[in-house]
UniProtKB/TrEMBL annotation:
This is 6-phosphogluconolactonase. The keyword Hydrolase applies. The lineage of its organism: Bacteria, Pseudomonadati, Pseudomonadota, Alphaproteobacteria, Hyphomicrobiales. Residues 10-221 form the Glucosamine/galactosamine-6-phosphate isomerase domain. GO terms for molecular function: 6-phosphogluconolactonase activity. Keywords: Hydrolase. It catalyses: 6-phospho-D-glucono-1,5-lactone + H2O = 6-phospho-D-gluconate + H(+). It comes from Ferranicluibacter rubi. Belongs to the glucosamine/galactosamine-6-phosphate isomerase family. 6-phosphogluconolactonase subfamily. It comes from the Bacteria. The gene is pgl. Hydrolysis of 6-phosphogluconolactone to 6-phosphogluconate.
Amino acid sequence: MTATLHTFETSAELAENLAKAVADALSAGIARDGSASIAVSGGSTPKAFFKALSNAPLDWTKVTVTLVDERFVEPDSDRSNEKLVRDNLLTGAASAAAFQPLYYPTATADESAATATKETAGIGRPFDVVVLGMGGDGHTASFFPGGSRLAEALDPQTPRGVMTMQADGAGEPRLTYTFTSLEDARLLVLHIEGDAKKTVLETAQGDGPETDMPIRAILRRTASPVAIFWAP
Ligand SMILES: O=C(O)[C@H](O)[C@@H](O)[C@H](O)[C@H](O)COP(=O)(O)O
């Protein structure tokens, strides 16, 4: 599918505009279906966007927030995406939203993934909004180059749901939605900032295998068009 690049002068301007686009998509979902769903990414980039979105005037009681991917760590860990979202997005008006975790306090990451798949079966078919990030190695969600289950995660035949992933660049075991869970979001966003990531994006837009830069699966073959939000 096609990707459109939206460029902003500053990170703050990007955060405001992305929050507005996401709030509009959530409002449209509520108007159409009576409820709306959004899956967001972790990392350092989304904080300002989360803060801007948390003040958006919409009926947050009808919104379910979940994560594109998560680390298999307890929710009070500084590495937890759940903690990032609770601290920065589920505040103010957005504190009325429901939150659907991917991490459960199970013995193994696989058990968490199975529970998360079951618990999320009622949302995101498709998601109203998915906001992806991208790492300097060309990963997105927990689709890491060299990831233990990368082929399965990206396979168009793999059903919707949450699966585990391990990779050298990932630290802890990860929990991630599969490609098929994310690719048809009504609003599918790739949020990246900085010149270094722009260069990575340009490399990914060139020829080469998806396994080298898994973001290519998003840039090349999603069912929905991708809106790329970038600021220096
Ligand atoms: O870390 C995560 O939770 C996500 O798996 C990851 O895909 C993230 O979006 C990128 O690594 C970008 O991270 P930064 O915003 O920190 O560069």
